[in-house]
Amino acid sequence: MSKAEIESLFAQVIVDLPGVQPFDYSFEADSAARIQIGARCVVPLGRNDRVGIVVGLNRPAIDANRIKPIKRALTEIEPLSSHWLQLTRFAAEYYQHSWGEVALPSLPRAWRSVPGARHAQSLSRWRERSQPRWAEAGAPNLKHTSQQAAATDVLINASGFAPHLLFGVTGSGKTEVYLSAIARRLASNPTAQALLLVPEINLTPQLESLLRARFPSEHVVALHSNLADTERAGAWLAAHEGRARIVVGTRLAVFCSMPQLSIIVVDEEHDPSYKAGEGVRYSARDLAVKRAQLLDIPIVLGSATPSIESWALAQAGRYRLLQLAERVGMADSLQPRPAIELIDARVHKPQNGLSAPVAHALTDTFDRGEQSLVFLNRRGYAPVVTCESCGWLSNCPRCSTFAVFHKPDRSLRCHHCGYAAPVPRACPTCGNQHLKGVGQGTQRIEETLRALLPEAKIARIDRDSTRQRHAAKKALDAVHAGEVDVLVGTQMIAKGHDFQRVSLVVVLNPDGQLASHDFRAPERLFATLMQVSGRAGRAGLPSRVLVQTRLPGHPLFAALARHDYAQFAQTQLTERQAARMPPATYQALMTAEARTMEAALDFLRTARDQALQQFAMAASYVRLFDPVPMSLQRLAGVSRAQLLIEADQRTPLHTLLGAWLAALRDKRAALRWNIEVDPLEL
Ligand code: ADP
Ligand code: ZN
Ligand code: ZN
Questions:
Q1: Which terminus has fewer CB within 10 Å in the chain: N or C?
Q2: To 5 degrees, how large is the angle CA 458–CA 461–CA 465?
Q3: For residue 174, how far is its CA from the centre of ligand 1 (angstroms)?
Q4: Which ligand does the CA of 386 lie closest to?
Q5: Are 22 and 56 in contact (CB under 8 A)?
Q6: Nearest CA to ligand 1 atom 2
Q7: How many angstroms is it from 377 CA to the middle of ligand 2?
Q8: What is the pLDDT of residues 460-514, one digit of tens each?
Q9: What CA–CA distance (Å, rounded) separates 137 from 458?
Q10: In 295-391, where do the E strands start and end?
Q11: Residue 647 φ then ψ, to 5°
Q12: pTM
């Protein structure tokens, strides 16, 4: 055996662990053919066996005698592609985690746990189960509006890496544009695959039937976190093996192995749920763009209210802006967009949550046999319970927040840590038996609505009403079928539904978000309000949107009333550029969790000092702010603090983070800390 061949009998393997990777392993010459880059394998690590992925075949970095052998090559599926390795490696470096921490958790459980004896059987079962299951209906023959046709044309003719921002008002037919562009890609190449990312799959049941109708003979799979393990394994495998030509999925699908991926669509690209809330805090939208760039393929980001980041990129010419300014079917008609009216809650004092003008509008709408939608971003009955004689408040014992009153089981529940207890019969401090729920949640509004409209069919959709599988879909189906007169709910009712008979949308108390310290709060509120108001008037019924607020003079409402997102976005962008905030600057957020706030702050102060001293050169291009308590200071008994890191350029920020975090990890802190690059919430 030649020297080169012997050297090649070492593999670099990544596993799901923090810290420096890959690790070196040896393997037998006769298994050489099976140990390929991208293959999964079982390796010994500490006392356990783990599944890892081979990312290189090379000379070992350490003394060859200390290297353990790979236990087993997992060859039942094709190795992961070099593109996939590139993508996960990029994500790991960008978000400051180990490669293995990104790559392995992105695989369905079946492909990242050590296979048991029955693995082979399961494998064939998954292959069978995820056969194409839709072969009905014909594609609806929609004649594109001229704007749809223009946008589709651009996408069809795009070649190479071409990012597009499809800015289209709610109801302008963006989905139709996505599907036409996908259809053309798939038609022009019999192996091509398409990836369609959506924020929330369970809330968009219509998308499935649309895809079914549009691609009757294609294998379409859905990937999201609510799938059973075996379903997910099967769907992933179908994509990995190229059998599935369309993958529609939530943020985790951005990592789905798709060897022939040819076009990517990110619907509702502004939606914060594209950002992972735990573990590696990646943005699936941003990674989708990176993936398109690595593959040199087109990508479309679509929204009625694009994120200010994407808006800025489109303004700068980095994304091509495609616009759908008219709602479908309304371009030539006299039908105006819904009128947005502000109800000043200081003048029209709400009774049990509803002001008189809102109550009248609801009654009128019901009397006309039309549907109403009541939006309130607060679940539960009342956000806090209080004792009026001594001032006791229902604090969560474990968090720096209130426990919310839930009426159906008379409980107090913390929406942050899950704490739940029965509502006390009497005030725990003074014994007063008349405790009072203060403020409004969706349960209370539902009660108020039932009293107001005793004849109406009223449904509520929020996280509590939809705990059971399919509950959300059932409730939404009922609304579509016209079986519901009034739908009350949280932002779950704002997303992409196509309700036909809704002619009134009521938005209750959005004021909390206006008062928020987070510089992204207005952007988020505007997006939600545009989205809910877009639910009205789809069938051409004259329609109204009523916003009940104590801050009717806020400039955000003026832009909202004009339906003018472009102007709002431009103002936001200008303000942020003037104030040196993202996207004009780049941020990372270090958080620490400890028993006491002092300990958490101390850790961050020490870390900050280390950055300033040990990495003074890199740190000189970066601003490290004073550590402060997080806005939710205590969560589940743990104190939390944050340190904001900011730079005018991305490179120095990443240079500092790379060196500094490695040093911090070496020191092995006694508390938990984390880093988030491009944080969405401060
Ligand atoms: P958006 O995603 O932009 O909010 P949708 O894609 O949901 O809008 O389209 C709104 C509605 O218009 C859908 O019911 C869709 O079937 C319909 N639609 C889209 N394009 C056309 C068209 N060219 N002609 C007729 N109806 C259309
Ligand atoms: Zn009391
Ligand atoms: Zn709590």
A1: N
A2: 105
A3: 7
A4: 2
A5: yes
A6: 174
A7: 29
A8: 999 998 887 778 778 888 888 888 999 999 988 887 566 778 899 999 999 988 8
A9: 33
A10: 298-303, 320-324, 339-344, 371-375, 384-387
A11: -145, 160
A12: 0.93
